[in-house]
Predict the 3D structure of the following.
Amino acid sequence: SQQGEEDPQALSIQEGENATMNCSYKTSINNLQWYRQNSGRGLVHLILIRSNEREKHSGRLRVTLDTSKKSSSLLITASRAADTASYFCATVRFFYGQNFVFGPGTRLSVLP
Amino acid sequence: SQTIHQWPATLVQPVGSPLSLECTVEGTSNPNLYWYRQAAGRGLQLLFYSVGIGQISSEVPQNLSASRPQDRQFILSSKKLLLSDSGFYLCAWRRYNEKLFFGSGTQLSVL
């Protein structure tokens, strides 16, 4: 079954507001990553959090990881219209070959 | 710096026709290479991955095949396309870095 599941599936906010997206997963992981995808384009890596970390920041992004609940959240502060995109979490387990499993994503719309 | 090229950007093919999508990586050696498919508004499904020349692993049984004839070249093929093969195809690579780098994608429509 699919490893990562983001919620909400879609989120619409006003510019300047904060956006929070959540990701749940089912098995143990080595790290969890968040990616962004503009419509019709490839995915771009945003941030990585390791299984022994609880929180990480990068610019306006804040990621948390709770391994006991098998969940992660991505917070985008002071959102901008340019943040409009789909956001995916990917769980990573280190074994030969396949090790990235992506969730279905959250479509974020930031209204000016 | 490393770059990944994927082409074509869009493709419209009739049912039963062959397919060849190509992906090349520059600026690195011996990358892990991946082919993903994304249905409209959905997440990514891993199709194939490769850890070296001629080494291909398939994640799901399907109408597609992959080949890696050179270190930095990954090709996705089909002998006869089905309607269900329509989707957005993404190539990605990874080496020592823990993150994936994606190509710009190919939108395939099978009619």
Notes: The first strand of chain A starts at residue 5 and ends at 7.
